[in-house]
C-alpha cells in the first residue's frame, strides 16, 4: 500500500502559494533551529534537519515543485520508482521516504528497441550545486579563516552505486517515451514536447528499486567539512568550493558548494567597497591647532598628522592599509573621518577660556548668507 504523500509545505510551515523568498526564509529559520551544531547528540533534531532540508530541496526547485504539486514524475503514486511513496521500500523512516524524491530516479539514455528492453547505458547527471551560510567576525573576514560546516546533501548509494536499481538488475527503457525522456503532443503542423509523465524525463524505469535508496540512487546525509575562507570576503560574498556539492548520478560529476559569508559588524571599522572607514574624534584644540594622533589600523596602529584648522567631516587616507582584495590583488585603503567632539558641560575655567577665545576670533561666518541675498536682490 502506498504511503500518503508528505506535506512538504507543512514541514516548512508555509502555504501552498508561498513565494520563493518566503520558502527560503522559512527554511533558513528552521535550518538554524535544528542545525546539528546547535543540537549536539540530539538525533531527533538531526532527523528534523534532514526533513527540512529535503522539503526545501524540492520546493526551491521550480521543476520539482511543479511535479510535486501535480503529483507527477517521482512524486506520483506508482510512479517511476515502482510504488510511489512506499515506506517499506525505504525502511519506514520519513526522511528515507523524502530521500526518494531526489536524484531523478537514475536516468536512462535512449536505446534502440521497444518497451521492456534494458537501458544498458543510463544517462549521467551532474550533481546539484549546494549553498550554505557561514557566520564570520569582521577580523576573520579580513584575515581569512578555516570554517567548519555541516551541509545537508546526498551521496551516491553504496549498494546500487547510483543506478537506483537493485544489484543484479538494471533500469529499463520507459515504454511511454521510448527512452527519449519527453512526450510529444501534436497541434496541427506543430509539436509540443514536455517531460515524460511516466519516467519524469529520465528515459528509464526502475522496475526493481534498490532496497537501500529506494530507487533514487542517492542517500540523504549531512556532510561535515572544513573549508578555507579567503581573506577579504565581505558580507554576502559567495565562495565556491568545487566538487563539494551533491553527488552526480550514474557516474556524473558532483556539483559545487557555494558558501555565503555573513560578516558581523566591527565596533571600529566599516567596510565600504574596497576601502575601510574609521571615525576619529578630535578635541576642539586639536582641530584648531593641529596635532599628531594615534589611529587604529587593521594590523595595529599608526600616527596620523592632523592639519591646523581641520574641519568636522574631513577625510584623510592611508593607502594600502585597508582590507585585502579578493584574488590577492593588493589591499584597499583606510579612510579616517575626523569628527569634532564638543563638551556638553563646561567648567568655569573652560567657559572663561572660551570667552577669551571668542574675543580674539573676529568675523561672523553667517554674514555671507545675508550678503548673498542682498546681492541677489540688487
From TrEMBL:
Region of interest (Disordered), residue spans: 105-131
Binding site for Zn(2+) 2: 174, 177, 196, 199
Residue windows of the CXXCXGXG motif repeats: 157-164, 174-181, 196-203, 210-217
Any one of the GO BP annotations: DNA replication
Domain CR-type, first and last residues per copy: 144-222
Domain J: 7-72
Protein location: Cytoplasm
UniProt cross-references to InterPro entries, sorted A to Z: DnaJ, DnaJ_C, DnaJ_domain, DnaJ_domain_CS, HSP40/DnaJ_pept-bd, HSP_DnaJ_Cys-rich_dom, HSP_DnaJ_Cys-rich_dom_sf, J_dom_sf
Keywords annotated in UniProt: Chaperone, Cytoplasm, DNA replication, Metal-binding, Repeat, Stress response, Zinc, Zinc-finger
Binding site for Zn(2+) 1: 157, 160, 210, 213
Required cofactor names: Zn(2+)
Gene Ontology CC annotation, any one: cytoplasm
Keyword Zinc: yes
Zinc finger (CR-type): 144-222
Gene Ontology molecular functions: ATP binding; heat shock protein binding; unfolded protein binding; zinc ion binding
Note on cofactor: Binds 2 Zn(2+) ions per monomer.
Domain of life per record: Bacteria
UniProt biased composition (Gly residues): 105-116
NCBIfam families in alphabetical order: DnaJ_bact, PRK10767.1
Similarity remark: Belongs to the DnaJ family.
Subunit structure of this chain's protein: Homodimer.
Domain comment (free text): The J domain is necessary and sufficient to stimulate DnaK ATPase activity. Zinc center 1 plays an important role in the autonomous, DnaK-independent chaperone activity of DnaJ. Zinc center 2 is essential for interaction with DnaK and for DnaJ activity.
HAMAP family in UniProt: DnaJ (MF_01152)
Free-text function comment from the UniProt entry: Participates actively in the response to hyperosmotic and heat shock by preventing the aggregation of stress-denatured proteins and by disaggregating proteins, also in an autonomous, DnaK-independent fashion. Unfolded proteins bind initially to DnaJ; upon interaction with the DnaJ-bound protein, DnaK hydrolyzes its bound ATP, resulting in the formation of a stable complex. GrpE releases ADP from DnaK; ATP binding to DnaK triggers the release of the substrate protein, thus completing the reaction cycle.
Name of the protein in question: Chaperone protein DnaJ
Amino acid at each position: 500500500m502506498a504511503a500518503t504523500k508528505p506535506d512538504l509545505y507543512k514541514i516548512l510551515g508555509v502555504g501552498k502559494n508561498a513565494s520563493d523568498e518566503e520558502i527560503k526564509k522559512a527554511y533558513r529559520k528552521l535550518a538554524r533551529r535544528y542545525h546539528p551544531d546547535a543540537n549536539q547528540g540530539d538525533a531527533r533534531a538531526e532527523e528534523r534537519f534532514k526533513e527540512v532540508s529535503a522539503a526545501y530541496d524540492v520546493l526551491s526547485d521550480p521543476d520539482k515543485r511543479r511535479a510535486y504539486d501535480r503529483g507527477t514524475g517521482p512524486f506520483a503514486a506508482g510512479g517511476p520508482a515502482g510504488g510511489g511513496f512506499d515506506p517499506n521500500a525505504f525502511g519506514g523512516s520519513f526522511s528515507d521516504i523524502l530521500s526518494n524524491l531526489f536524484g531523478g530516479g537514475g536516468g536512462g539514455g535512449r536505446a534502440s528497441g521497444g518497451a521492456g528492453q534494458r537501458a544498458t547505458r543510463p544517462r549521467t547527471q551532474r550533481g546539484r550545486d549546494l549553498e550554505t551560510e557561514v557566520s564570520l567576525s569582521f577580523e576573520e573576514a579580513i584575515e581569512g579563516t578555516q570554517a567548519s560546516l555541516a551541509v545537508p546533501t546526498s551521496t551516491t548509494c553504496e549498494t546500487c552505486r547510483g543506478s537506483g536499481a537493485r544489484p543484479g538488475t538494471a533500469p529499463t527503457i520507459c515504454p511511454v517515451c521510448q527512452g527519449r525522456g519527453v512526450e510529444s503532443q501534436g497541434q496541427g503542423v506543430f509539436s509540443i514536447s514536455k517531460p515524460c509523465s511516466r519516467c519524469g524525463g529520465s528515459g528509464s524505469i526502475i522496475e526493481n528499486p534498490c532496497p537501500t535508496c529506494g530507487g533514487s540512487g542517492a542517500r540523504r546525509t549531512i556532510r561535515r567539512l572544513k573549508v578555507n575562507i579567503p581573506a577579504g570576503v565581505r558580507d554576502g560574498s559567495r565562495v565556491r568550493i568545487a566538487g563539494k556539492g551533491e553527488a552526480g548520478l550514474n557516474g556524473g560529476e558532483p556539483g559545487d558548494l557555494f558558501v555565503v559569508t555573513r560578516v558581523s559588524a566591527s565596533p571600529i571599522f566599516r567596510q565600504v567597497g574596497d576601502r575601510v572607514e574609521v571615525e576619529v574624534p578630535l578635541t576642539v584644540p586639536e582641530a584648531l591647532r593641529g596635532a599628531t594622533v594615534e589611529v587604529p589600523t587593521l594590523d595595529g596602529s599608526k600616527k596620523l598628522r592632523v592639519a591646523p584648522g581641520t574641519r568636522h567631516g574631513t577625510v584623510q587616507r592611508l593607502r594600502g592599509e585597508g582590507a585585502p582584495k579578493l584574488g590577492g590583488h593588493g589591499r584597499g585603503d583606510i579612510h579616517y573621518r575626523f569628527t569634532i567632539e564638543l563638551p556638553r558641560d563646561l567648567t568655569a575655567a573652560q567657559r572663561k577660556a572660551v570667552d577669551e577665545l571668542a574675543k580674539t576670533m573676529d568675523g561672523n561666518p553667517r554674514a555671507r548668507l545675508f550678503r548673498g541675498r542682498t546681492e541677489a536682490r540688487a
